[in-house]
Amino acid sequence: MTKDLEHQFVSELENNQNIVHKVCSLYTNDRDSHKDLFQEITIQLWRAYPKFRGESKFSTWMYRVALNTAITLYRKSKKSIKTQDYESVIYKIKADEYDETQEQHLKLMYNAVKELGDIDKALVFLYLEDKNYTEIAETLGISEVNARVKMNRVKNKLRTILNP
User: Where does the RNA polymerase sigma factor 70 region 4 type domain lie (predicted)?
Assistant: First the structure.
């Protein structure tokens, strides 16, 4: 790999590393697992980078590689990968902005998402990241229509989980 390509990769990774951290948080439940998955995703991104053609945004391509890596490792392990406990990822909020109701709603939503399958989690994750259906479809390797249908089904599942 040339030095220019290496510098481009490092720059892109640094600019978009939060994507990888979010995926890791979704598919792991402790700091060590998070670090291991982050490292594995970074290795897979590095290996695949020379083949990145720029036909999509780097971030979209990164989502796809990160999610595919996490899902592949999940399936290989043949055990449930618990998501990170909500309490360990609470963001610092200014005291005057604190709203306990919003925090409780978020906690309920995280718990509901934990009950979904691995692909459905990825779909919800991308949806909550404000990705449009075209980007979601491209990232997950499905058609846009399929992404919409799956999202409607996942929304219904979440409604059922949240309002039994």
Answer: 110-158
